[in-house]
């Protein structure tokens, strides 16, 4: 008769044991049905699944939820991806008239997402007009402030009072010249060495623009996903696994600290335990190889005599083979 087994530990279930069920053929021991990152039970049995692993709400948000380009908060649910950025559906709107673009399409115009009407108006206008004096810019570059274009000479630096140029910066609604902006205490990106005005990523002893903090191997930005540090560099999970990683036989996560190696497998220190009674073990614990699974001495002593004799015979054979090498 076919006996159902736990989707994690592959052991069977006791009669009348409480189990968790996540699919027609996916059953779990209650102690095995936990988050793949924090190993805590799921609140109200709510979990998120990604690449075959299950995560609690908080860990999934920290690891995989993208960040909205407008409001800077994590996106849970529907994500709008446009212009190499991510948005909440309600945050993706025309940068001139504010119309929601999610269901109507958009045009990329000079790095801005515009509705079709605003894009057509800009295309038909012979030249941009200053929002204050309504004069054209001729060969000048406009200063963009709160979504509008101005002649730079209409403004002065909030800090030093000098007349501004088109490359001034807006900080908390105040316009600053480049010199005052760079002295305003904003963190400097470790990649482009320019001030960071929006969300900051702190890692490797430096601070980064979100889009500039990327894997040292594939150069893809992490964008809120987990990274792994090695020799002063950051790597995505896939590249870290290929270059350096050992995987825990129990949780399948990359082992970042000490590794327990036994029976041709590797374990996190906290996950190395007897396969029969689940008693925690360490590097110094005495254990036996029972069908390629670690077995503590107490459980080994409870095995039938015939099984123990066979295991002793295999141990002697291995020692003899090692001595003859």
UniProtKB/TrEMBL annotation:
Q: CDD domains given for it?
A: LIM4_PINCH
Q: Cross-referenced InterPro entries, in alphabetical order? A: PINCH-1-4-like (IPR017351), Znf_LIM (IPR001781)
**PROSITE patterns given for it?**
LIM_DOMAIN_1 (PS00478), LIM_DOMAIN_2 (PS50023)
Q: Which Pfam families match?
A: LIM
Query: Could you tell me the keywords of this UniProt record?
Result: LIM domain, Metal-binding, Zinc
Q: Does the keyword Zinc apply?
A: yes
Q: Where is the LIM zinc-binding domain?
A: 4-66, 68-125, 187-246
The name under which this protein is listed is: LIM domain-containing protein unc-97
């Amino acid at each position: 008769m076919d006996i159902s087994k736990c989707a994690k530990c592959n052991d069977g279930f006791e009669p009348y044991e409480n189990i968790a069920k996540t699919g027609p053929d996916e059953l779990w021991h209650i102690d095995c049905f936990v988050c793949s990152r924090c190993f805590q039970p799921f609140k109200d049995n709510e979990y998120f699944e990604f690449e075959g692993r299950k995560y609690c709400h908080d860990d999934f948000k920290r690891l995989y939820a993208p960040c909205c380009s407008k409001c800077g908060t994590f996106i849970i649910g529907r994500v709008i991806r446009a212009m190499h950025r991510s948005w909440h559906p309600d945050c993706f709107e025309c940068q001139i008239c504010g119309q929601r673009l999610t269901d109507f399409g958009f045009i990329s115009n000079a790095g801005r997402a515009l509705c079709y009407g605003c894009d057509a108006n800009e295309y038909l206008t012979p030249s941009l007009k200053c929002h204050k004096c309504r004069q054209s810019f001729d060969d000048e570059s406009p200063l963009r402030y709160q979504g509008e274009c101005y002649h730079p000479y209409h403004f002065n630096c909030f800090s030093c009072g000098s007349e501004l140029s088109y490359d001034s910066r807006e900080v908390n609604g105040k316009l600053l010249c480049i010199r005052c902006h760079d002295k305003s205490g904003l963190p400097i990106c470790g990649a482009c060495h320019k001030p960071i005005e929006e969300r900051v990523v702190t890692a490797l002893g430096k601070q980064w623009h979100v889009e500039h903090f990327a894997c040292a191997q594939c150069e893809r930005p992490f964008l809120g996903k987990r990274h792994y540090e090695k020799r002063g560099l950051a790597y995505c999970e896939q590249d870290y696994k290929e270059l350096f990683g050992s995987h825990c036989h129990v949780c399948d996560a990359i082992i970042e600290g000490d590794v327990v190696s036994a029976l041709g497998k590797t374990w996190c220190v906290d996950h190395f335990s007897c396969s029969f009674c689940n008693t925690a073990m360490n590097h110094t614990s005495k254990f036996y190889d029972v069908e390629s699974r670690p077995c503590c001495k107490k459980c080994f002593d409870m095995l039938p005599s015939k099984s123990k004799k066979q295991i002793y015979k295999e141990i002697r054979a291995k020692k003899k083979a090692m001595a003859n090498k």
